[in-house]
Amino acid sequence: MLNEQDHKLLKLIAEDCRLTPKELSIQTGLTSEYIKQRMLDWEKEKVIVSYQPMINWARTGEEKVSALIEVRVLPQRGYGFDKIAKRLQKFTEIKALFLMSGGYDLSLLIEGKTMQDVALFVAEKLAPLEHIQSTATHFVLRRYKQDGVELMGEEETIQRLVVSP
Amino acid sequence: MNRYLASHVAGLPPSGIRKFFDLVATMKDVVSLGVGEPDFVTPWAVRESGIFSLEQGQTMYTSNAGLLELREELSHYLSNSLGLSYEPENEILITTGASEAVDLVMRAVLEPGDVVLVPDPSYVSYAPCAILAGASVRYVPTHAKEDFRLRVEDLSQVYTPNVKLLVLSYPNNPTGAIMRREDLIPIADFVTKHDLLVLADDIYSDLTYDGKHVSFASLPGMHDRTLFVSGFSKSYAMTGWRIGYVAGHADLISGLTKIHQYTMLCAPIMGQIAALEALRSATEAKNDMVTAYDRRRRLMVHGFREMGLDCFEPLGAFYVFPDITKTNLSSEAFAEELLKEEKVAVVPGTAFGPSGEGYIRCSYAYSIEQLQEALKRITNFVARRLSK
B155 and B299: one domain? Predict the structure, then answer.
């Protein structure tokens, strides 16, 4: 369990991983040495898994297609869904993979250059796998919000007075 | 037409802030640290509840005291967060911003001949409201070497037998100072000894960075002597909704309500509904804002100290109050020259009272990027002055 100061530090890193230990030190009151050590510890413990910017590819003009795939799986004795999930996560086309409650078992986020790429992946790589009973493919048409960040719409322009009491 | 103005209005000096606002308004590309309101927009769930209330046709008056549901929720909130006990039925009055509450308190309890003690420096409205209520004001100086806390020694120096009301405004605008329990206890003894009433403006009570705020009204025996004023503007980024409140002994609240019912009738209903939603669902959003302010606060204090200026560490509100005397400029001259040379707007400390001389108020209710840009420009300005 994280203490309060570590929780705040980790949230800050999650918000903006470009901040240097010195900048983090100024903004948290913790020493740079402490921050460096904690970051190393967290990297080793896989608490910090990677440092990645969030790219809104739709704005680059580059073609990219995403789809959410609902997958029904026959669970294996002694392994449940973990064995098939471990195998699926090796595919680089699969960007996210979740075990779900409800009407289906696994949820996959797949990315490809074209719809054809995604469809072929599902038809040729995913569906024929042993223990997979069925798939349902839903293409993403537009991203409005991701990881808490609004991607669409005009930014709210705040018009405050320049000076106020 | 000035001859028609009442003498006590004509004689009221314009706000020092207003003068500076007019100057800033003539310039372009100014980086401002002059704003006394959050840069965040009201949390969406709160805004949504206001929109929904309009869709439902909730556009009527409420009772003078405000929606009972809101007063009940406030009563729980004050009890849970500050250990205060107020009856929603007759000890809480919802006002049109905390500013109205300050005005009501002054008008309800003061009369000609009364004196109000006001910490110096502090928010700009206390003295004018007291004067408009017919009373006079004595400033109680506070000092950086005492962390801008109000001290009984300073109170005793300015006390006269016709003092009726003491204003306590902590966390403080403009200094960012807070008062801890041990600082408040001697004040409570002083208040009891001289049979005073206290206007406790706790509007920044949620914005503290080193432990929880202690409300003066929570001290033994101070409940009935205190008119507790607060609002939603600062904690929930709801300045434009204009929802504040005042809580206190039922007899006093009844007096305040008389003025409120004849002059304001009630606070806007959509604002009251939004405030209710803020209490119910915006605690996490509020805490996130406090965390963001804390980062900025540290950045600003570090920035001013790096420039070679003394900067008291503020533990509340969202202002830093650096000492600029090393530059050999007065507060006003510093603010004006900084604006002209580097296009950064700060507010001279003197806008908040005579003890503000030698200081400037910088709000950190801005993004980190804006604050970094402002600090860069101020650093250039200060370096030029210090090398002279």
Answer: no
